[in-house]
């Protein structure tokens, strides 16, 4: 409601209420707050759903579907996770070697390695057999990429590396035994390798 004010010369002025005292202003404010509240609770529930859902990935060495849990590990769990990830790498290598033993030639690359481990920085150590040394450089590159991709997929499935790290590949060192390095991934392209000359 507006007030009418009359001055001495009979002029009439109408004094208007400030906008924040008007009913339409408060209705708009309430609607905006209700809209914001509804959107924030909807986005929180969507975020919870996406955090709880699992991500499907296809292993590069086979057509297995594996779920990737989300979330980060506490430091106390990381030591046991390191052992667990190395056990999973060992199990995947054994599984691929079993496929190769059954005559599936697409897994024959796995027969050139006898152990794969990952350190706390997710750098891979692949221990190769003596037969690996007899391969040409291009064959070493091909086998090395397949072994690296297989191990990389395990790290990704276990949420040890993210999407970008999965695409870039992890730093990989190839060993003949614990003391003899035979090759390492290149600095700027981890999917390419530098091979030590055979002596």
UniProtKB/TrEMBL annotation:
Organism field: Limosilactobacillus reuteri (Lactobacillus reuteri)
Skewed-composition ranges (Low complexity): 43-72
Annotated transmembrane regions: 20-38
Key words, A-Z: Membrane, Transmembrane, Transmembrane helix
Protein name: DUF5067 domain-containing protein
Region (Disordered): 43-82
Claim: Transmembrane is one of the keywords in the record: yes
């Amino acid at each position: 409601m507006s007030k009418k004010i009359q001055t001495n010369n009979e002029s009439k002025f109408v004094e208007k209420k400030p906008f924040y005292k008007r009913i339409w202003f408060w209705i708009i404010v309430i609607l905006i707050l209700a809209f914001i509240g509804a959107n924030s609770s909807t986005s929180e529930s969507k975020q919870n759903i996406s955090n709880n859902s699992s991500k499907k990935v296809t292993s590069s060495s086979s057509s297995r579907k594996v779920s990737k849990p989300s979330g980060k590990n506490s430091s106390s769990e990381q030591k046991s996770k390191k052992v667990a990830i190395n056990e999973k790498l060992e199990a995947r290598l054994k599984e691929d070697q079993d496929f190769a033993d059954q005559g599936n030639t697409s897994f024959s690359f796995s027969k050139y390695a006898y152990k794969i481990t990952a350190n706390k920085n997710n750098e891979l150590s692949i221990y190769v057999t003596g037969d690996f040394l007899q391969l040409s450089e291009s064959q070493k590159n091909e086998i090395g990429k397949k072994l690296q991709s297989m191990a990389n997929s395990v790290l990704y499935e276990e949420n040890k590396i993210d999407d970008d790290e999965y695409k870039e590949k992890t730093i990989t060192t190839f060993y003949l035994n614990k003391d003899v390095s035979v090759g390492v991934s290149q600095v700027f392209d981890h999917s390419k390798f530098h091979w030590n000359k055979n002596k």
